[in-house]
Amino acid sequence: xxxxxxxxxVDHIEHIIKIAGIDHVGLGSDFDGITSTPIQLDDVSCYPxxxxxxxxxxxxxxxxxxxxxxxxxxxxxxxxK
Length: 81
Known about the structure:
Layout: H1 6-20, H2 47-56, H3 61-80
Helix pairs in contact: 1-2
């Protein structure tokens, strides 16, 4: 099976944005139990490649912050209340 790349991952992120909206997208960092990763995404230290690809595709800072953790933090704060 081909590994895919950071571009493939961002294609999936864009699909979710189109279906669910920017406020419902977030990234996880659980790489346990997988035997391969997408090219350029060996671990969470490679997340800046996702940031750069989102910038390359025209996403603004606010949207990128939501994807990279803002949405997760919003949901956790809401659940805490």
